[in-house]
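Hi,

I'm pasting everything inline rather than attaching a file, because the server keeps stripping attachments. The sequence lines come first, and each chain or strand is labelled.
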Amino acid sequence: MEPFERVVAQHGATVLRVCRAVVGPVDADDAWSETFLAALRAYPDLPSDANVEAWLVTIAHRKAIDVVRRAARHAVPVADVPDRVLPPQGRDLDLWAAIAALPTKQRQVVAYHHLGGLPYDDVAALVGGTAAAARRAASDGVATLRRTYPTIDQEES
Amino acid sequence: MTFAPAINDEDLAHLHRDLVAGASAQNLLDVAYRTVDSPVGSLLLARTPAGLVRVAFDVQDHDAVLTALSQQISPRVLEAPGPLDDVARELDEYFRGRRTTFDLPLDLQLLRGFRRDVVLHLPDIAYGHTASYAQVADLAGSPRAVRAVGTACALNPLPVVLPCHRVVRSDGTPGQYAGGAAAKLTLLDLETRVGVAA
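And the predicted assembly:
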């Protein structure tokens, strides 16, 4: 089994993109930390043929839900509820803001498939519904992003 | 289509530090490691909660050594300089000629049987002195196991700290060393120079 340090080095950036897309830049650090701590705990029992990145994205999905629930519990009601989105400060934050503005399902599907590399079957298992529905939601999400964040195709990897 | 918006290295470094702290607090940091520069090249230092478990030379391939530790001890391995600060400090003092013995908690779990007997007797050879493989076989209680002493020294998981470099051929020539013959000479020269000056 590979040292866990290599797992962090290889997948840390991908998991951070997924967390930023799903919970926004502010809570992403908590989601990332909880994801990798949980992964570190479970790592010795991971089957040797497991897809490590898919495993991490799946944990990130659960931790993101925890983080959002916790934030909602601790939220202080205010008269004018702001979006949970930072003001745009530069190009990359614009992208996160554009992703944050998507409906929840589209945002999750774009995060897990396009940023996290998870196949649609696995994405559907996480967010519910069929793989075909996940594919349609991702397609709708990307179409919206192309409108709200026109340079997205330059981010292709 | 996949897209990969840029992630700042500093953000990841910050998250990595938090991960190490969290892992440590939850007793999940089974193996912490770092590297230090030294006159015998880059040294990999690894420790468990019990103590220093491995020192490895560049020529031993640090990546391969980490993979072996992951298999032999635990895959919960993280680069974490803090827990190895005391080791780095004592090694620095040693290489500056200001330290002749190490005072560090050691984890000897990679050592068993005769190899363990041999390696634990290495500190009996005083700083600045050498002993032959045959003499160390005597020290370890098996005078005829000269070749096995050679193997035990070659496989010493804690070189420099447990001084297998002080074991030389019976004709006085340095002989082989896990860190390479040049590294062995460097260590012996250092100890001779400092020993004479003292």
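The radius of gyration of chain A is 16 Å.

If the labels don't parse on your end, tell me and I'll reformat.
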